[in-house]
Design a protein that fits this description.
117 residues; transmembrane helix; SpoVA; 6 helices; mainly alpha; Stage V sporulation protein AE
């Protein structure tokens, strides 16, 4: 049942993004930014944690989850370090995901020999 919940919520987030691409003049970059901001805002009002409890990875993997992670990291760092946490909290909270993306990107480039187009 957990897999079904994750699939449905993650799929719904993807469907919303695809509809925005197809039906509006928003660029994909603006839609991605909107997803990150939506994750921050939903986390700020306490709704995103409930979504994560329900859907698990279906809510944490998409960009809305990244925005929520950044916001939680900043909040925690501000509580611990004061104003300096505004600058460090988001990077500290999301460091593992960013590092994994860079490492896997590097590995893929070494394996598949990318070429300029």
């Amino acid at each position: 049942m957990d897999y079904l919940k994750a699939f449905l919520v993650g799929g719904l987030l993807c469907v919303i993004g695809q509809i925005l691409i197809d039906r509006t003049k928003l660029t994909p970059a603006r839609i991605l930014v909107a997803y990150v901001v939506a994750g921050v805002l939903l986390g700020a009002v306490g709704l995103y944690d409930k979504l994560v409890d329900f859907a698990g990875a279906g809510a944490t993997v998409p960009l809305t989850g990244f925005g929520n992670t950044l916001a939680r990291g900043v909040k925690k760092a501000v509580d611990e370090d004061g104003a300096l946490g505004i600058l460090t909290g988001g990077l500290t909270a999301s460091a593992a995901g960013i590092t994994a993306a860079v490492i896997f990107g590097l590995l893929a480039s070494l394996i598949f020999k990318p070429k300029d187009k």
